[in-house]
Amino acid sequence: MAFTKDFLWGGATAANQIEGAYDEAGKGLSAADFVEYIPKEKREKDNSMEVDSEVIKRILAGGHDGRFPKREGIDFYHRYKEDIRMFAEMGFKSFRLSIHWSRIFPKGYDGEPNEAGLQYYEDMFKELKKYDIEPVVTLSHYETPYGLIEKYNGWKSREVIDHFVRYAETVFNRYKDYVKYWMTFNEINIMNISPYTGGGVLSDLEEKPKQTSYQALHHQFVASSIATKKLREIAPDALMGCMLARMSFYPYTSNPADVLLAQQENQKNLMYTDVHARGEYPNFIKRFFKENNIELDIKDGDLELLREYPVDYISFSYYMSMTVSASEGGEETSGNLVRGVKNPYLEASDWGWQIDPIGLRVVLNDMWDRYQKPLFIVENGLGAYDELTEDKKVYDDYRIDYLKKHIEQMSEAIEDGVNLMGYLSWGPIDLVSMSTSEMSKRYGYIYVDKDDDGNGTLDRYRKKSFNWYKQVIETNGENLDTDVDY
Ligand code: BG6
Questions:
Q1: Is residue 479 part of a domain?
Q2: Hey, which of 379, 424, 431 would you mutate to test ligand 1's pocket, going by the most ligand atoms within 8 Å of its Cβ?
Q3: Where does residue 436 rank: exposed (0-12), middle (13-18), buried (19+ CB within 10 A)?
Q4: Tens digit of each residue's pLDDT (9 = 90 or more) over 100-110
Q5: Is residue 435 in contact with ligand 1, taking CB distance under 6 Å?
Q6: Does any domain span residue 269?
């Protein structure tokens, strides 16, 4: 049997994509609350998540007629008991959620935490405990409090480190009896793709936006190490992880120029986990900084902190692989946060993300060889259009097929010798898309009756994949048979 007895099967979410109740019980505004829904036909890019200072000004002045789906979520805030009961029915061993920072510190820099926010998550952890579901908690999943954006331009400023650490200490102290698995920043590499999303940085206010985003990233690395230090003091048995959007790059051809480019892209992607896990900036990124006139302001003690407090485990998201070419040409395709050349051997989702289960085995082996630290897949899944039948069924065989093939490759990787702690598929219940704010891009085992315009009853329905995943967990990954009763 490939999977260990205590393998953490479950699902993953983020507060801003499920909770709603964006201004209830003292919660302050966060970066996610400013992201408007833009229908596909009006979108200029694949995604619509980056926000600039003009947009914020306009929204605060009330000059908008749009919707903010991340303020609404799927009303998990009020329905979490019902939803957790369904996760338990599937046999979840663990559930990944993020704490919405601005529920705890509404502005980010407040003197005292908001008790109502603290109590809310405590109640949720108690509910999870009832079913022996282990929470896996992200401290910051694209949810920088707006107060920190307004006052400091987000993570650009070093002051934010202290505010983050205070927040981290507050929740470690409060939840130390409930939470064993923590991670600091979701997909920390997004800082260089969408600085607003990753760190509340408004790039249009910056003269040298690239320089700023690497500086902001440095602040997050340092904050992560200090938080790890604090966690060791407050809850010595707990574990701290980092989180990377793993983007695996293939060369388009065997032309050495393509191979080199793919290697460089992979190095750049792994730079983040290099710092988190090995505790230092790798040499190739130092060359990149030099050639791109990026000079980091590194204070005394920063590098020691990175070295002394690396993470305990490495978690990552994996949805697809990318292909790159050093020459012009080749049909382009989109992907999770980045674009690349179309790989002729792979099929793609309706959003152009290239489906590549074998790539997951490659990634797992690569990362295990590189770090020798436990790996944790905390996001994977297929965003697809689902159809709810009249008798409230969703026959999502395409999703089952995607998940099955990825789980098979995980099992192969474990046989290869990789230490894999668990598998949390993304969006076990349909939620608001991060990149497009759509509801119609669904990942769930549970269907939520809500459409892109915000209409619907919010009722929940079990999809066919619900029964299938239940069987997978029940048999600890042994029975992946797609022929399930439904
Ligand atoms: C990851 C994010 O990049 O991908 C999630 O951590 C996100 O927040 C997920 O939802 C899937 O992306 P999308 O754009 O389909 O929601």
A1: no
A2: 379
A3: buried
A4: 999 999 999 99
A5: yes
A6: yes
